[in-house]
Amino acid sequence: MQNAVQRLALQQFNWQQYGRQLLLITLMLLVSACGFHLRGYANLSFKTIYINHANSELARDLVRSIKPTGVKIVANPDSADVVLEVLRDSRSKRILSLGSSAGTSTGAVREFELFHVVSFRIKDRGSKEWLETQQIENRRDFSYSDVDALGKAYEETQLYDNMREDAVRQIVRALAAHQPAVSNQDESADKNP
Prior knowledge:
By secondary structure, the chain is of the alpha/beta class. 42% of the residues lie in helices and 29% in strands. It contains four helices and five strands; from the N terminus they run H-E-H-E-E-E-E-H-H. The protein has a five-stranded mixed sheet. Helix 2 (57-66) crosses helix 3. It is flat. The protein starts with a helix and ends with a helix. Residues 182-193 have low confidence and may be disordered.
């Protein structure tokens, strides 16, 4: 009788494990059927790139996003297949709403609107404009409270970082979407010596 109970408990455990595995496989099939896939690295058609304003946070994030693709970041624009010129990288904020809260006077700031604007253009080795000046504008709203000023300052910093990361993704997509003329000429010259 005790052996039968143990076998029954073992069979029940196996059915639970089998059910979990079946559920996991079903979920994986559903996710793959909807077209979901992990974000990979951009497929860039050039071998070297120069990014101006190398000491800015935006440029550092761009370098981190481009390095895994195998493209070499060079320090001299004359030795680069592509030159990425960041023309503007600015952030600002404005008051979105005023109000009053416990412990504050009327007219206290309740919400801010944050802005991050990046303008850039891409040139090829011959300084020919490869992609005309593009502008990326991001904005976020966030509530503000004098009572939690330190936490709100941290939240503001995180929102600006998030907007900068979004701008980096858009710039890398622009780099991947366009083919520089210089890269195509180099390839055809390599094939026909």
